[in-house]
Amino acid sequence: QVQFVESGGGLVQAGGSLRLSCTASGTPLSISTIGWYRQAPGKQRELVARISSGGYSIYADSVKGRFTISRDNAKNTVYLQMNSLKPEDTAVYYCNKFTTPGTWGQGTQVTVSS
Do residues 23 and 83 lie in contact, with contact meaning Cβ atoms separated by under 8 Å? Predict the structure, then answer.
């Protein structure tokens, strides 16, 4: 069974940066399109960015130009570099397969203070 583990979250001031990491056991991330998602309190989970097996990436309009998704296949890890963070980026961030999502991990909390 695939298990995703997210890390790298924390508390940061507006304008700051964080880099999130996503690893998985039970599957090579390199063969799948992987998405980073977030869920803020009282809101539905939303797709933030995704990266294909070939490295093609797509971003939500709200993060375009500020976030960068990348992957290191040797480390079986997908990253989300978040720059120019805003308070509205505050959420729990998750990663998962984009096409056929598996079990969701615990996520990593990102809190951006104003």
Answer: no
CA 114 to CA 109: how far, in whole Å?
16
Q: Which of 26, 41, 9, 42 is nearest to 97 (CA)?
A: 26
Nearest to 35 by CA among 18, 53, 14: 53
Pairing of strands 34-39, 46-51: antiparallel
Sheet containing 18-25: order of strands: 3-7, 18-25, 77-82, 67-72
Planar angle of CA 107, 79, 82, nearest 5 degrees: 85
Q: How do residues 11-69 score in pLDDT, each as one tens digit?
A: 999 999 999 999 998 889 999 999 999 999 999 999 999 999 999 999 999 999 999 99
